[in-house]
What does this fold into?
Amino acid sequence: MYMTDEVPTGWVKPVAKPTPESLRARIAELRAELAEAESQLREMEEGARLEALVRVRNLMRAFELTPADLGLVPVPKRRGRPPKVAA
It folds into this structure.
């Protein structure tokens, strides 16, 4: 309840219990703050992702590497069953 381990002596100002309406208002404020923070986080992550891609691309150009050199397999154009092969 208190930030210190000391027990208060003398008169302590009473604190009113929060009402359901005040709690709902506080929750709404915190949710708005959370949404803003999450938006900033998404922007930061996107920026970091783009920066990493640029660095990788520049390194690949500098060392004349291809995706095959890195062991990357091309993504199949179509997913699902492979085409039938006449035997």
Summary: The longest helix spans residues 20-62. The mean pLDDT is 87. The two ends are 79 Å apart (CA to CA).
